[in-house]
Write a structure and sequence with these properties.
Length: 344
């Protein structure tokens, strides 16, 4: 019997081993078609454990795309719009709502009204069922208590004069953009533009994000700032000399900005996506986020005894929150103006 040369046998064995390795790698990584694809803009330090527990409890494998950029929710929204004709994502967990509203307007989302949706108050869910909120942050004044007490009177006095000791994030994205959009809606465009211009003339300190605001106030470089409760609580945990007061809108409401979850239109795994949406909108997940370092405030009914005292104190402010459904149109107009303002 003729035998192939030794060099040919070696090459054949090497080729077979390579093919076997490729097959094993393909099996180990699992094809995307077998996985529920989640795009997540919430900080992975808080969200990944929640998603992995869903994976373990249900046996549904997940492929999670996080975005760590400062404008993370904005970039994931843009990606979902770009993929609209051939969606890769099944479920979008956003860390705010205005970008999610934009996706609804552009036909990227599908309606789903499940048990989780029903437990969320009306002002924090889409009336057509295309998204629902959970685990919220509040917009607050953060005050350095070495400089003055966090009373309404002291804050009003600090805002009335020179603003060189007051810090805010540039309002081009994130919760500060939501804040500006609400002011645009309630004040009107001209009053907001005038207030913005006068605030800059009076020396207000504009920085790159809410965390920077928190750091400046905690260090005493500014006495007062706009931020969110999650950043405020990080300063509390670091024993910084800070206190806070909720910011109210011109109509006296609080600004409560939840996470939001939505199902992508024409996604591959609709039934599995519904399971994840119900999971994220559950009491258990809201309680879990409330007990994280960010102390996110539950929107739906929960067992109050399971919440930290700091979160229980914030719960009444949720009921006073502005209805976010009315802000989408103002957001578009406000963002267009801001982009022109900061491009100069």
């Amino acid at each position: 019997m003729n035998r192939p040369p030794l060099s040919s046998l070696t090459a054949l064995i090497a080729t077979n081993l390579a093919l076997a390795g490729l097959l094993c790698l393909t099996w180990w990584q699992r094809p995307e078609a077998d996985r529920l694809v989640v795009y997540c803009a919430h900080d992975s330090v808080y969200s990944e454990d929640v998603l992995r527990d869903f994976e373990r409890e249900t046996g549904i494998p997940l492929e999670i795309r996080f975005d760590t950029e400062a404008t993370k929710s904005l970039s994931l929204v843009s990606l979902l719009v770009a993929e609209r004709e051939n969606p890769r994502c099944d479920v979008f967990w956003n860390n705010e709502v205005l970008g999610t509203m934009k996706l609804k307007e552009q036909g990227v989302l599908e309606s789903y009204v499940g048990v989780g949706y029903e437990r969320i108050p009306r002002q924090y869910r889409d009336p057509d069922g295309c998204w629902a909120g959970f685990g919220a942050r509040l917009r607050v004044y953060i005050v350095n208590t070495d400089q003055f007490a966090a009373t309404d009177e002291a804050i009003d006095a600090a805002l009335a004069g020179d603003l060189s000791g007051v810090a805010v994030a540039q309002p081009l994205y994130g919760t500060t953009l939501t804040h500006y959009s609400i002011l645009w809606q309630q004040w009107g465009a001209e009053k907001l533009k005038q207030w913005h211009r006068e605030s800059r003339e009076r020396g207000i300190v504009e920085v790159k994000g809410n965390a920077v605001v928190k750091n400046l106030v905690a260090a005493g470089k500014c006495s007062l700032g706009w931020t969110d409760t999650d950043d405020y609580f990080l300063a509390v945990d670091d024993d910084e000399p800070v206190d806070m007061r909720p910011i109210r809108t011109p109509q006296g409401e609080t600004i409560c900005i939840p996470n939001s979850v939505a199902i992508v239109k024409n996604c591959r795994h609709r039934k599995l996506a519904e399971k994840l949406v119900n999971y994220l909108l559950s009491e258990d997940v809201e309680v879990r986020l409330a007990n994280s370092r960010s102390r996110q405030v539950p929107l739906g009914k929960v067992d109050e005894s399971k919440l930290p005292e700091q979160v229980r104190q914030l719960r009444p402010f949720v009921a006073e929150g502005v209805d976010l459904n009315g802000v989408a149109a103002a957001h578009r107009e406000c963002l267009e103006w801001l982009q022109a303002e900061y491009s100069q």
